[in-house]
Amino acid sequence: MDNIAVAIKNVSCHYGKNTALKNVDLDIPQNSIYAFIGPSGCGKTTLLRSINRLNDLIPAFRLQGAITVYGSDVYGTNEAAHIERLRRHIGMIFQQPNPLPTSVIKNMMLPLKEHFKATEQYFRDKAVEKLKLTSLFDEVAAHLNRSALSLSGGQQQRLCIARALMLEPQLMLFDEPCSALDPISTFKIEEMLLELKKERTIIIVTHNMEQARRIADYTAFFYQGEIIETGKTLQIFSDPQTQLLERYITGKF
What we know:
- By secondary structure, the protein is of the alpha/beta class.
- The protein has helices at 44-51, 80-88, 104-115, 120-133, 137-140, 153-165, 183-196, 209-215, 233-238, 243-249, and strands at 4-15, 18-29, 33-37, 61-69, 72-73, 90-93, 171-175, 201-205, 218-223, 226-232.
- The protein has one domain (4-249): P-loop containing nucleotide triphosphate hydrolases (Rossmann fold, 3-Layer(aba) Sandwich).
């Protein structure tokens, strides 16, 4: 299908002799939010990190099957240039905010300076644009030269999202981005994700069932390395087809 951003075909993942994912098939539509839910250790984050080859950093990791992102074969070659280019076009946001121990504005400009040559004013204008997109600019406008570490946890996470947007990624991966945040910060990030999906595709791992209900267009339920159910979020939450999913979303395990 032409509107598929990420195609995952018959993917199995192994850490040494341990199998984390078994024969996973999934199509992620463009301009959607796709939530991965399921108990801890069921393979959600393994799949998420496989999409931008972050698991390559683990020596014992091995993947079978195929993943394509906007038609490009993620595991088609092991050339360093291919992997760098892949990661440049895929934004990744982790559970804990990871701002650099430097100023807010330098955090923002660093990704562009690493890859492009332009005027300082261009980099600054781009940074302001992305800070506004994440509704953070008004909160930090007077403190752009202060350490990013002085921001609150929610502000730091939005800064990391704004920083990831500097390279204009088509695809963004979120690994429990709100698990360490208060409800107000969580609400701001959820609002932002709904806005971002107009031009990007978003995959989010979350343990928050209500968050998946609120923002995800589609949801996949993982259990013991397999996808048990997947489909439109409203449908699988209102009419689960398996007892496993029904028990999970009602908090029975």
